[in-house]
Specification:
Length: 267
């Protein structure tokens, strides 16, 4: 059973408060320290998203899905995920204390894609949902470098910032027709947690391998005109007119976890 909205938002608020408290503690941790090391970092990663359910922002007005439940007993919606996609990132930071690093980082996923299934029709009928998107996230992060394990130095950290998520036109494909839902873009709060190992390579270079969880924020279709076409792209007519209708926003949240490899170089 899916959690209700109050439970979902309660857990989200608790996670956000934890990240904000960690960030707020940084001035206390570094008050007596000076920046004795500046570094840059660049890397790549693979992110796997969590399940995501698109629903109407307002199911009673210009709704795509509408209020109520589908034939499967779940709320009218589309359920799927954003798959696995490559990411690149660049960052710059400084060592504020012997075991504390503070960093600004940009994380970019250029070609993620949503694939899911609506529940308008019976379970055995075609009702696929697909859209491409890109995600740009900027974070302020802090990492604690832990005691060394042989040649490796473990670290753990977290951060908070803003994501800009651009969603292309969404295609909903049914047995005879397809519905095109307007593209949308949204900026929202983002946060992340990370843990990994650093391997010094000499000459100021360190190879970092890290697992990271990123809550990138809200993904939304645009408010605008929805269109119904046949599979060959020709216009579907209704009452002698092109089958078009005004749609409000639909939305979900994007969260992912993945493995990231980066090279850090200290000056």
């Amino acid at each position: 059973m899916l959690p209700n909205k109050d439970e979902k938002y309660g857990r989200r608020r608790a996670r956000v408060r934890a990240v904000l408290l960690a960030v707020a503690a940084l001035p206390v941790l570094s008050a007596a320290a000076s920046a004795d090391e500046i570094y840059v970092r660049a890397g790549v990663g693979i992110d796997r998203s969590s399940d995501a359910r698109f629903t109407d922002a307002d199911c009673s007005t210009n709704a795509l899905y509408g209020c109520g439940d589908g034939p499967d007993g779940a709320p009218l919606s589309a359920v799927g995920d954003f798959g696995t996609s490559a990411a690149v990132e660049v960052g710059a930071g400084y060592r504020a204390a012997p075991a504390l690093r503070i960093e600004g980082v940009l994380h970019y996923r250029p070609d993620a894609a949503y694939e899911g299934r609506a529940n308008f029709l019976a379970a055995d009928r075609r009702q696929s949902v697909a859209a491409d998107l890109s995600v740009l996230t900027g974070l302020a992060a802090a990492y604690a470098d832990l005691p060394v394990l042989g040649p490796l130095r473990p670290f753990a950290g977290g951060g908070a910032g803003v994501s800009r998520i651009a969603l292309d036109e969404m295609t909903m494909t049914f047995p005879r027709t397809m519905t095109l839902v307007p593209a949308g873009g949204r900026s929202s709060f983002a946060w992340m947690l990370a843990a990994g190992m650093g391997l010094p390579l000499g000459g100021g270079a360190t190879l970092d391998v890290a697992w990271r969880y990123l809550a990138a924020g809200r993904v939304a279709t645009g408010e605008g005109t929805g269109r119904v076409l046949y599979h060959d792209g020709s216009i579907h007519y209704r009452n002698g007119q092109p089958n078009e209708f005004h749609l409000g926003e639909t939305r979900t949240d994007l969260a992912s976890h993945g493995l990231h490899l980066s090279l850090r170089y200290a000056f």
